[in-house]
Amino acid sequence: MKLVLLGTAGYHPNERRHTACLVAPELGVVLDAGSGMFRLPQHIITRRLDILLSHAHLDHVLGLTYLLDILRVRPVDEVVVRGAAEKLASIERHLLSEDLFPVKLPCRYEPLAGPLELPHPDGGPATRVTPFPLAHPGGSIGFRLDRPDCSLAYVTDTTARLDAPYVEVIRGVDLLVHECNFPDAMADMAALTGHSCAGAVAEVARAAGVKRLVLTHLNPLDDSAEFLDLDAARRIFPAIELGQDRQEIEI
Prior knowledge:
Elements: E1 2-7, E2 21-24, E3 29-31, E4 48-52, H1 58-61, H2 67-73, E5 78-83, H3 85-95, E6 108-111, E7 116-118, E8 127-134, E9 140-146, E10 151-155, H4 166-169, E11 175-179, H5 187-193, H6 198-208, E12 213-216, H7 225-228, H8 230-236, E13 240-242, E14 247-250
Parallel strand pairs: 3-4, 4-5, 5-6, 10-11, 11-12, 12-13
Antiparallel strand pairs: 1-2, 1-14, 2-3, 7-8, 8-9, 9-10
């Protein structure tokens, strides 16, 4: 399975990064809909798209408003947007109000009520999607995706802690894509804003026994390895790297 990082910044884009959006092209699964979603058309190879939203903050949902052009370039039969019921309602009521966006989007909304099986576009084994709650102002959701031959977890907009319940949910995944907005020296700011520091994320990856860790939702003001002190994080968990926009990861 391939995962493509379409947007790896948090809060707002910079010259190198757009905000949160990932896609597994063979599955037709999109994780979050930030500004990086404008890159989606070249990666659509299925007739259905399932867009899984972690929460409704603008850097994770504003790409929904790009759907009209995305589907004009790469038409599909169906688009399903999934997320917490109250977040979907907020998106429809506010982001997609007539005052802000006057056209109804060509998609349907499905509240997440627990684990689900997404059918494979080619009739192969389904993908099991396990949503799990994350601690973040306003609430957030992480996702674990399990295929017969691989697994990944997407954890964004939360403060990494060894005692966080999600550590058990992501145990043993082949790939963990985890947010990392601050260096360890800014732990107070991370806790205040509901985001993570590099060392804490590395500790979580080690405790959960994941095979590979890719950092995303990076700080748009400074997204460098030096800013995050990645060398120190690698002493905790060596298989760690900064995600890059347009990066393709084989799982």
